[in-house]
Amino acid sequence: MENFRNRVETWFEGFAHTLYRHRIKTIVLVMTVMGFMILQIPKITIDTSMEGFLHSDDPTLVSYNAFRDQFGRDEVIIIAVNPPRIFDAEFLKKLKRFHEDLEGNVPYIDDITSLINARNTRGEENDLIVEDLLENWPQTDSEMETIKRRTLSNPMYQNLLISPDGLFTTIIIKTHSISTPANEDELLEGFGDKDPAPGSPPEPGRMYLTDEENSQVVDAVYRIVKKYRSPDFPLSVAGSPAVTHILKQSMMRDMRKFMVLALLMVACLLYVMFRRASGIIFPLLIVFVSLLATVGLMALFGVSIKLPTQILPSFILAVGVGTSVHILAIFYHRYQNNADKEEAIAFALGHSGLAIVMTNVTTACGLLSFSTADIAPIADLGIFAGIGVMLAFINTVILLPALLALVPLKPKTARAKLDTGASVMDRFLMGVGRISTGYPYIILAAASVLMLISCFAISKIRFSHHPLGWFPADQEVRVATETIDEKMRGSISLEVIIDTGRENGLYDPDLLIRLEKAMDYVESLEFGDVFAGKAWSLTTILKEINQALHQNRSVYYSIPKDRKLVAQEFLLFENSGSDDLEDVVDSQFSMARFTIKVPFKDAVQYGSFIKAVETYFEKNFPEAQVTITGMMALFFRTIHNVIISMAKSYGIALVVISAMMILLIGRIRIGLLSMIPNIAPILFMLGVIGTFSLPMDLFTMMVASIAIGLAVDDTIHFMHNFRRYYEISNDPKAAVFETLNTTGRAMLVTSVVLSLGFFIYAFATMQNLVNFGLLTAFTIIMALLSDYLIAPALMMVVNRKRGGTK
User: Fold this and answer.
1) CA 706 to each of CA 485, 487, 649, 777: distance values in angstroms, whole numbers, following the listed order
2) What is the pTM of this model?
3) Which of 252, 378, 501, 574 is most solvent-facing, going by the fewest CB within 10 Å?
């Protein structure tokens, strides 16, 4: 092992001399390659959609896309109005103006529904009339009372367009499911719906409504809402498109804020450590170039920035600077002593080369363990954060020596106050050494007890995927969504597709009656905070038709018992000019859509509800193929994938990093023991999550795999140098003190940089990012303490002092 290490160090020294002699060529070559990647950045896209959490081939997403191809987008924007009186002439006039303004000025609208144009199906003599509720504007109090009675007695309006108490009414906006370029809007104006025909796949080269188009829709809605909002016309905007848009805005604000804070924090620490312009500019330049190149690669491969990948900039900045710190610390110290720049560069690279290779590879491995995640943005983060770390490493070992060689630098005498600072650090590190070597068994016993306690707390961890809960409690879209969930009993949907596989299979009265019974069953379901606020299907339309054709008598609000009569009534409805059937049935009347409106809650709570619905439909519709889909199903699938991904990524990270530790140290037993200081902080962090009932969501799931990749860096530096000094002195105590006095300094500085790099997430808008940052920073600090106390204690126990020196 010693010979291998010597060969690697010699190679790095020779490599440094080559870089010194060809410094200008090196800088030009590296910047050309990086520049090509950076030039791809304008192609980058942002995707904060809920379906963006799943891979394109995920069965749940495939089913959801098939549903959208057939029935259009199930995500709707809901605008709730809570006026003093709904059935008032002045209010209805303002509602009409508001409705028409939205209809005329919000892009990509497929349909907009309110009391103004709600479907009103009635019979007049022998005719079936399907018209808007306010087709004939009420002119008198009596006519207004008729409209009120008709509205409040219509079961379809309840909890959809008006609250049961008659105090809230809504405007529901449904957008196109397929993306439409701006120029096509003008070219196709007047040629009808630009979505594909029901059942047909999207045309080649077209995609579902993009994140940018969704933002345009929501921005337009908010602009119009702002114009109309007043004390007598209070408006609340909710629905998953609005939540997605606000998440995107918060993400962009936080990314900019984190970048600025991280740059300032790192610059200050670099200044305090080196007191040189080059010690600040070079590391920041290298890591900034590496970050831009990483984002450029994402754009080149068509990978969007999603919610979890927003941590990428500040993460690469904090991690990338650590490698520069190790090299610069040794370089400046050597250069101060001998004033030979080339020799100092070669010495720094030779001394740290192997260790920084291993630390960056292990960090990348910790991140790349996410690449197999079933959550698409987590997999993207793992791949590109790993690539970013390796780009920062490559640029550091190639570009940094070339820049040091090119720029004139003068040896600098250490200032007295720096000596004082060093003295404080010396005393601290020596104190750590005395404790860790003096009480190894007590330290290991205490660590074991804490790990056992953490394991008990881990059993209390609760999983979560609740995008709405990430917002502060007083955030407008969260308040609006919670209000609508309470007053209108739901703001998102679970969709059930019943495919009979037969043309006109839905004319069967028995099947339709079973669908009607399913509505009653579903609306009775309640599991904790999750309930069905409303359910509807094509039977709702059929009952309206049947009632209208029987002199509007409520006793006929039912399913006809005759198959031919069912077919005739649906035909009459289609001939009335209404296209509402397209929303609930395919053109062959073989496939029905059954919609269940539910509140926007934590996806974990949906499990029992979805299972109950799935079981009921499979039992009661054995002749049909039943598919559960919709936004609610996507949420639940996401948290299901989170749990699986967490187990896989943790396992992969531990196996790969353990193998690398064994390879580095050269002994299986010592290599495995060296994983204890890496596993301990992860257990402590998970214990904190369980103890304080923090949610284990997409972001906290990432902490352990990221932290183990970072924590192992310090362990590698400690073990690498401990073995070196132990082979020289044959005294584990002396080796621990020498390791702390050398590597211990860099470990302290890099851990401070990394922990502060994650502590800045405490200033995030969304609580999930706050938790992520604080937990990661806590884990890094625990990792440093483990390497200061547990690692030396282990080395004292497993290594004995031998007589003589080598």
Assistant:
1) 36, 42, 10, 11
2) 0.84
3) 501
